[in-house]
């Protein structure tokens, strides 16, 4: 495959080093002995956090494809300047004569004559106006195009997440393309750096991750994801009087995760696996203080449904892709 830009190569190199340092060995390095209750709780915690991360990553990849293809897809190559085929922005003021005539507009809704009218929705003139409800923080995204490297770069922030994303369209020979062209583009190469935090009543998570993923198969009926990534994680979970905090790193691999192109009818991956290897220091406080090291290899096997098996060695559960929840562990 032709050489990428310096940023693509550097990014991939960082991920390879992270994977080499972590390894993919389910046995892992020697760990301090754990009490049976803590060992069971750790397995449950790791399955839940890994399942949530894998399901979230899958949704992000699908959204990234939709954004990339939807923004720049064309049916045939264009000889014009970049952006000629991009969707035109909606004009802020429609041309005169194109709006709905007043005669065609429905009459304003008001009670029939003689019926009592509802009170005014705003205070009478001179009274203080109520303060508007605060709007949620907007999720903004801005993108640029490097014409020399044929790479799109986007920055997005909001809802507890900050994302820097780069992607490149590739033809069947692996040659970079200026834009997505149906019938010619075979793959999209994504590089994603994200910083995220999430919390609820009994769970909190902070992660800083890198992802390098290639989605291929645009010339056929299926879309196939292969790639890898790494992240620095801090997770904590409260249960009864105990709080368990996990700090360390994880390495992720996607192997032939395959979707049907028609995702409206088949929204879940037909096949493939997602693997997450975690190396954490776990500290349990509350009922008693315990500190131990954790090395776990989590495997999710996709089967075309929303409910997929997730396993940590001989510890097996069910991951619900729709809700990101993990249950049925044994």
Structure description:
With 330 residues, this protein is an alpha+beta fold. The chain is 16% helix and 41% strand. Strands 1, 2, 3, 4, 5, 6, 7, 8, 9, 10, 11, 12 and 13 form a 13-stranded antiparallel β-sheet that branches. The longest helix is centred in the N-terminal third of the chain and has 37 residues, at 36-72. It is globular and about 60 Å long. The two termini are 44 Å apart. The model is unreliable at 1-7, 16-20, 22-32 and 75-113 (pLDDT under 50).
Question: How many extended strands?
Answer: 13
Shape: globular
Give average pLDDT, whole number.
80
Strand content: 35-45%
Helix and strand pattern: HHEEEEEEEEEEEEE
Secondary-structure class: alpha+beta
Report the radius of gyration as a whole number of Å.
25 Å
Question: Helical amount among residues, as a percent range?
Answer: 10-25%
| pLDDT < 50 runs, ≥5 residues | 1-7, 16-20, 22-32, 75-113
Biggest sheet overview: 13 strands, antiparallel
Give the helix tally. Answer: 2
End-to-end separation: 44 Å
Summarize the structure.
The chain is of the alpha+beta class and 330 residues long. The chain contains 2 helices and 13 strands.
Furnish the topology, listing elements before pairings:
Blueprint: H1 6-22, H2 36-72, E1 140-146, E2 151-158, E3 161-171, E4 176-177, E5 185-199, E6 203-216, E7 222-239, E8 242-260, E9 271-285, E10 290-301, E11 307-312, E12 315-320, E13 325-327
Antiparallel strand pairs: 1-2, 2-3, 3-4, 3-5, 5-6, 6-7, 7-8, 8-9, 9-10, 10-11, 11-12, 12-13
């Amino acid at each position: 495959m032709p050489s990428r830009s310096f940023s693509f190569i550097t990014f991939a190199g960082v991920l390879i080093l992270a994977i080499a340092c972590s390894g993919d060995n389910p046995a892992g390095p020697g760990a301090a002995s754990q009490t049976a209750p803590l060992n069971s709780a750790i397995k449950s915690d790791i399955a839940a956090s890994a399942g949530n991360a894998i399901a979230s990553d899958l949704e992000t990849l699908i959204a990234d494809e939709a954004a990339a293809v939807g923004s720049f897809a064309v049916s045939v190559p264009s000889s014009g300047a970049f952006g000629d085929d991009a969707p035109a922005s909606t004009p802020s003021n429609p041309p005169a004569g194109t709006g709905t005539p007043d005669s065609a507009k429905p009459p304003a809704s008001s009670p029939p004559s003689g019926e009592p009218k509802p009170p005014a929705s705003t205070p009478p003139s001179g009274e203080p106006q109520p303060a508007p409800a605060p709007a949620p923080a907007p999720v903004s995204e801005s993108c640029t195009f490097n014409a020399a490297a044929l790479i799109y770069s986007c920055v997005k922030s909001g809802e507890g997440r900050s994302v820097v994303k780069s992607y490149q369209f590739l033809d069947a020979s692996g040659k970079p393309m200026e834009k997505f062209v149906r019938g010619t583009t075979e793959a999209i190469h994504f590089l994603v750096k994200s910083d995220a935090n999430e919390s609820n009543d009994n769970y909190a998570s902070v992660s800083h991750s890198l992802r390098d993923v290639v989605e291929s198969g645009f010339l056929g009926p299926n879309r196939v994801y292969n790639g890898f990534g790494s992240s620095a994680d801090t997770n904590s979970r409260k249960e009864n009087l105990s709080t368990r905090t996990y700090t360390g790193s994880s390495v992720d691999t996607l192997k032939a995760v395959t979707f049907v192109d028609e995702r409206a009818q088949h929204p879940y991956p037909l096949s493939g696996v997602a693997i997450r290897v975690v190396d954490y220091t776990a500290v349990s406080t509350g009922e008693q203080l315990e500190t131990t090291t954790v090395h776990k290899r989590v495997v999710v096997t996709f089967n075309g449904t929303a409910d997929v098996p997730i396993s940590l060695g001989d510890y097996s559960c069910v991951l619900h892709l729709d809700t990101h929840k993990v249950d049925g562990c044994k």
